[in-house]
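Exercise 7. Given the components listed, write out the predicted structure of the assembled complex. Treat all entries as one system.
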Amino acid sequence: MFDDLSRYLSSASNQELVLTQLLQHIYLSLLPLVIGLALAVPLGWLAHRYRGVSGVVFGLSNAIYTIPSLALFVVIPVVLGTQILDSVNVVVALTIYTTALLVRPVCDALDAVPFHVVAAATAMGYRPLRRFVTVELPLSVPVLSAGVRVASVSNISLVSVGALIGTGGLGVLFTSGFQISYTAPIIVGIVLTLVLALVVDLVLVGLRRALTPWLRAGGTT
Amino acid sequence: MIEFQAVTKRFDDGTTAVDNLDMVVEAGTITVFVGPSGCGKTTSLRMVNRMIEPTSGTVLVDGEDIRKSNPALLRRRIGYVIQQAGLFPHRTVLDNVATVPLLSGWTRRKARARAAELLEIVGLDAAMGKRYPAQLSGGQQQRVGVARALAADPPVLLMDEPFSAVDPVVREGLQDELLRLQADLDKTIVFVTHDIDEAVRIGEKVAVFRKGGVLAQYAAPAELLSNPADDFVSSFVGKDRGYRGLSFLQADGIQLGGVSTMGLHGEHLSGERPSTVGGPDWTLVLDDDGRPRGWLPPGVVVQGEPAEEELRPGGSLYTEGTALRGALDAALSSPSGLGVVVDDDGRYTGVVTAQQVIDLIEERRKDAA
Amino acid sequence: MIEFQAVTKRFDDGTTAVDNLDMVVEAGTITVFVGPSGCGKTTSLRMVNRMIEPTSGTVLVDGEDIRKSNPALLRRRIGYVIQQAGLFPHRTVLDNVATVPLLSGWTRRKARARAAELLEIVGLDAAMGKRYPAQLSGGQQQRVGVARALAADPPVLLMDEPFSAVDPVVREGLQDELLRLQADLDKTIVFVTHDIDEAVRIGEKVAVFRKGGVLAQYAAPAELLSNPADDFVSSFVGKDRGYRGLSFLQADGIQLGGVSTMGLHGEHLSGERPSTVGGPDWTLVLDDDGRPRGWLPPGVVVQGEPAEEELRPGGSLYTEGTALRGALDAALSSPSGLGVVVDDDGRYTGVVTAQQVIDLIEERRKDAA
Amino acid sequence: MILQELFGWLGDPAHWQGPDGVPNRMLEHLGYTLLAVFGAAAIAIPLGLYVGHSGRGGVVLVGLSNAMRALPTLGLVTFLFLLAGGSEAGTIVGLIVLAVPPILAGTYAGVQDTDRGVVDAARGMGMTGWQRLWQVEVPNALPLLMGGLRNAALQVVATASVAAYVGLGGLGRLLLDGLRVIDYSKVLAGALFIALLAVLLDLVLAGLQRIIVPRGLRVAAAAVAGRPKARSSGRTES
Amino acid sequence: GGDPLKGGGGAAGGQIVIGSADFSESELLMHIYAGALTNAGVQVTTKPRVGSREVLVKALQDKSLAVVPEYSGNLLQYFDKQNPAAQPDEVMTALKQKVPSGLEVLDKSAAEDSDALVVSKDLAAQGVKSIADLGPKCSQYVLGAAGEWKDRWTAKIAQLYGCTFKEIKTTDAAGPVTVEALKSGQVQVANLFTTASAISANGFTALEDPKRLYPAQNILPLIRSEALDAKGKAALNKVSAALTTDKLVALNKRIEIDKETVADVAKEFVTQNKL
Ligand SMILES: Nc1ncnc2c1ncn2[C@@H]1O[C@H](COP(=O)(O)OP(=O)(O)OP(=O)(O)O)[C@@H](O)[C@H]1O
Ligand SMILES: Nc1ncnc2c1ncn2[C@@H]1O[C@H](COP(=O)(O)OP(=O)(O)OP(=O)(O)O)[C@@H](O)[C@H]1O
Ligand SMILES: [Mg+2]
Ligand SMILES: [Mg+2]
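Answer.
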C-alpha cells in the first residue's frame, strides 16, 4: 500500500492534479463558511432578539438539514439558472448548509452574553447597532467560534460529495481511484481532507485567541 | 433633581411593578430606595434613564420631561451602576471607564486621560487600567463600575444594588468611599438596596417600597427608625431599630471618664482621671503608641510586661465624635463595663459607661418632647 | 460525636485548606463553622463524610475512624445538605426525599411513606410531593433538601451554607425551623455559614476559621462575642458585638414597671403600677385584645377614640422571658423611653427602661467578676 | 413546470413497484440508517457516559471526535468498498463513523452538564459510582444525548445516499441514477423522499425523547425558558 | 486549474475547457485531446469526471465545456432514440444529421469501445458465447449495469434476442461495482466496455453481438462548433487517425492494471504519435 502511495505521489502530473483539487477544495469549503457566517449573524440575532422568530428560524434550519447534500448540489442550477458545472452551485449549497448550521450557535452565543453587560451598555447610551457590533458580537466569540469550527469541519468533508456531480475538489480523488480500484488516491484524498480540516481548525482557534485577549488574562489574581 | 409624577408601571403580564409613585429626589443628595425583593425598586430606577418606559405618569430630570429627550443621549448624561458592575469583560479597565466619553465623541487620548483620572478618584492604582475586569477582585470591579458611571461627569447617578455582591468588610469600605465621593462631587445619587443597614448608613433620605410598588415611607433615616409610618415599615426596618437609631444621635455632651492605664512594658502611665464606675479598678493596657491592647482585671498585679494570657481582650472601640451607637456598644462589649474611647488615630483618650449613654439619650428625648 | 484529630488537608496544587485541625463536635448539638470565604469550612465538613480525604490526621464519627467504613455506607448514615439544595431535577419531591431509604434497600412503599412524613416534618404540604423541584420556591427547595438529608434518620447532619440562597425573611424562618427540628430530633448537626449572625443564632458552639484553614476560636456564641480570642475573631464577629452579646443575657431579675393605658375606644384601662421614669406621663393605647397600638404623648388629652394621627407608633416590643437584647431595643426605640413588654400572645404586661437593662447588665458583670 | 414533471414521476405506478420502486428503496435507506445509528450509538453512548462520568480523557475524546467529523464519508465508503471487496459492511462502517461524533458529543456534554451540585449531592447521599451514573447522570444527560442521536440520524439519512455510489440501494439510487441521465424529476423525488424519511425519523425520535426524558427536566427547562436558553451543543427540546 | 468561477466554454481565442465522462478511458481521451490541442497552440484546461453523457451534453450546450470525447453509437442513441443505424459509417452519417445545431462531431477514429455484455467463466463454459446464446435463458439471470441501461436497452434486447433479464441490478457505469458484482456472483451478466482490462484480468467473456444490439462505438470528439477553429479541429482529427482499438486497450491496461497516471499515459501517447 505504501509503495502504491509513494508511486502515486511521485508522479508530477498526479502532484499537479492533487494540488489543483486541493485548492479547489479549499475554495469550495471556505467561501461558504465566510458567506454563511455573514448570513447567520443577522439571522441568529433575529432569533436571539425575538423569541417568536426563533421557532421559525430554527425550524427552517432543521428542515434544510434534512435535504441531502447531493440533491441540493443538483437542484440548485435548476433553481438559480447557473451552469451545471459551475462551482457556484456547490458554494451556494454549502452556504445554505453553513447558514443553517450556524444560526443556532449564533443565537446561543448571543444568549450567552451576560445580560447585565448588555444592560450596562444600554444604560451608558449605546445605540442598538453599535452595541451589537462593539459589545455583543465580540463577547459572543467564544461560544460562536465553537460553532464555526464544527461548520468548517463539516463543510470540508461535505465538499467531497461534489465530486459526484463534477465540481472538483478532493472528492475527485475518491471517484477516480474508485473507478480503477486504486486506493492510493483515495487515501491521499482522505488524508488531505483531514489535514485541511486540522489546519483550518488551528487557524480558527488562533483567530479566536486573537479576538479574545481578555479570556487569557482572566483569573490571574 | 428627579421628580416622579404619578408614575405607574404595569408590565405586559399584568404585574404592577410601580404604583402611582409621587416623589421628589433632591439634587445633590443620596436618596436610597429600599424594600423587599420585587417591590419595584429597579423598575423605578430604570424609568429615570428610560430603560423602562412608564405606563402612565411623568418623570422629570432637572425639570425636563425625559420623554422629550433622545434615550441614548439622556443615558449618557446619567451614570448607571449595577450589581454585577456590568463591566465589559472584553475591554481593559481603562477602556471600560473611557466608554461614555468615547460615545460622546471625545478623542481617544482625552477619554483615556479622563479615565485614568477617575481611576485615581475611586482609589485604584493607575496600573490597574491595563488589566481586564476578570483580573480584579469584586470590590475593585465595583470601583471601576463607579468610575465608569462618573466618566462623563453626569449630574445624576443611578446605582442598583451596586455593592451587594461583595463581602461585608469590602462593602463598608465602598460605602465610605461613596460618601466621600459624594461630598467631593456633589452628584444627585439614587441608590437601590434591600439592606436597611446600608440604606440608613448612606442615605440622606430613604424611600421604603412595599410589594406592588407602593411607596410606604419617604423620610430621613433617623425619622424612619424612630417613627416608622406603619407596621410594614417598622417590621422592615427590623427589630434592632432602637439600637440602630443611635447611629443618628451625636455624643456631643458626653463627659469622658478616666481609668488607670499601664504600658506594655509594665510602666504605670496614668490614673489621674477618676474612674466613673465604682468597684474594684480595672487597668487598661496601652501599647507604645497609646493604642489600647486589653484589660487587666482588678486585683491582678503584674510585674514588668503583662503576659498575653493575663490580658483580657478589649471590647469594641468608640471613636470620639461619632454617633452614640458606637459608645454604647463599646461599653457593653468591654469586660470592665468601661467603653474605651479613642481618637481618629486609635489612641486612647478616655472611657465611657453605658449609664452615661442612657442618660444622654434620656436627656435628648426630653429635649425633643 | 465527631472528632477531628490533627486533620490537615493539602490539595494537589499546594493550597492548604485545613491546617492541623483538632476539634470535638459534641453529639446532639448544632455546631457552626464560620469564617471568611476560602477558609476551609467546606473542606472540613466534607472530610466528615469522606467526600474529601484528609492528607493527614484522623476523623472519628461516634468514636470510629471513618477510614474503616465504606464511603457509600458511611454517607448513608450522614445527612448532607448543600447550598443549592442539589435536588434531583428529574425526580419528584417525594422521590427526592425517598432516595436514601431506597438506596438502603427499603421497599418503595415504605420509603415513600417515610418521605411523606418528612415533608410534613419540614413544614411542606403533602401535595408538594408530586411536584418537581423546579416547581418550588427557593425556600421550599431548601426544606426538601433538609427532608432528604433526614430521610434515613441519620444521627449526623452536615449542612453547607444551606440557607444562603434564600432571602433574609425566609431564611430566618428556616433557621427557626431547624432549631425546632433539632429540639425534636436531637441530631448532631454541623452547619457551615459565613454569616456570623446566623452562626450565633443557631449554634450551640461556633468554630471560627481563619484563612489557611486554621481554627481561630471554638466556643459558645456568648463567649465568642464577649471574649473573642484575638483581633481576627473580634473583627470578624463585628462591631456590634456588645449589643449582640445581650442576646445571651437572660432578663430574669428584671422588675416590670407600669404605665397608664387606655383602650382604643377611649376607656381608661389602668395606671395602677407606677411609671418607672419621672417626667410627664405618656399613655399607652391598647387594642381590645390588650395588644399595644401606640403612644399618646404627655399632655395630649383625647375624648373617646384616639385618632390615628394622634397616636405615636410604638417601638419594638419585648417579649417577656427572652434575652436582654430585646428589652434594651424596646426601650431605646420607644418614643416614651419605656420599652413595652408583652407576653407570648403579644399582650401588654408592663414596661421596662434602658436604665433597668443597664443596671442588670452591670450587676451580672460584677457577679461574673 | 419542474413540479409538474415531479408529480408526473410520482404518479407513474412503475416507480412504486419492485426492487427499484420507492417503497423498497425507502426500506433499504431506512435499513442503512438504522444500522448505522444503532451501531454508532452502541459505540458512542457507553464511551460518552464513561468519559463524562469519570471525567477522564474528555479533552482527548472531544478532539478525536472532532477529527472524525472531518473524515469525508465518500472517501471512506469508496476506500472501504475496495478494501472489503464490495460488501455492504464498508458502507455501514463509513456511515457509523459519520454518526459517532454527534452522539458522543451529546452524551458527553449531557453527563458533563449535569448540575455539579446534583452530582455532589448524590455522592454525599452514599450513591455508588454505578448508582450515580444510572440514577442521576443518565437521566439528566438524556435531553442532550437524544439531541445528539437526532442530529446523527439526520446526517446519516442525508448521507446514506452515498451508498448508491458503491452500488447499494437506498434512495440515493434515485439521486445518482436520475443525475446520470439528468432526470430532475427523479432526483427531486429522491431528495423529497430522503427529506421525508428524515422528518419522520426525527419525529419518532422526538416522540421517544418525550417519553424517556424525565418530566421534571422538562419542567425545569420550561422554568428557565424565559431568559437564557438551552445550551449550544445539540438540539434539546424541539 | 484555472479560475473556477469563470465559465469554461471559452469564446474563440480564450481558453477552452475539455471535459470527460466519469470513467478513466474518457479521462484518458480528454488528456490526449488536450495534449494535441495544446501542441496546436490552443489554450486548454481540463475538467475530468464531469458525469454522464447527459451531463456532458448539457454542459456543452450551456457553454461550460467545449470538447468532450464521445462514442458514436451511444451518442446517436442519445440524440435519436429510435435510430436503427448500427454499422460504423451508417452511424456516422446519421449522427452528423442528428447533432443539434451549435454542436458538431469531428472525424471518427478506428478505435471502438463498445458496450458489451460480459459473463463469468462458468457461464461461458456452459457454451454461452454470444447474446444469442443467452437470449432464451435471460430470465434466469441478473444483469448488472448502470442505472440508465434499463431505459436504453431493455426493449431493444427483448426485440432482437428475446432476452428479458430476471432482474437488472443497478451497479455502476462499467466500473468496479459492476466488476465486483460479477466476480462475486451477485449478477451473472454485466455490462462492461470491450476495452476494459477487467475482462481479461478476471477471465470474463465478452459476448458477441451478432444482431448489433449495441451500435458501432467509434471514438470521436464532440465539440461546440464555435469553440474551435480549423487548426484545432485538424489537431483532433489527427488524434482520431492515430487511435486504434488495440492501442486503446493497451493504454487502458496501463491505467487500470498498472495504475499509471492517466495524464502521463496520455502525454506519452501524444508524444509518441507526434500529435
Ligand atoms: N420585564 C418584566 N416583565 C414582567 N414583570 C416584570 C418585569 N420586570 C420586573 N417585573 C416584575 O415587576 C416587579 C418589580 O420588579 P423590580 O425588578 O423592580 O423589583 P426590585 O424591587 O428591583 O426587586 P429585587 O430586590 O429583587 O431586585 C416584580 O414583581 C417583577 O417580577
Ligand atoms: N479541589 C480543590 N483543589 C484545590 N484547591 C481547593 C480545592 N477545593 C478547595 N480548594 C481551596 O481550599 C481552600 C478552602 O476551600 P473551601 O471550599 O473549604 O472554603 P470555604 O471556607 O468553604 O469557602 P466558601 O465560604 O467560599 O465556601 C480555598 O482556598 C480553596 O480555593
Ligand atoms: Mg432590583
Ligand atoms: Mg464552602
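Discussion: Chain C has a mean pLDDT of 86. The first helix of chain C runs from residue 41 to 48.
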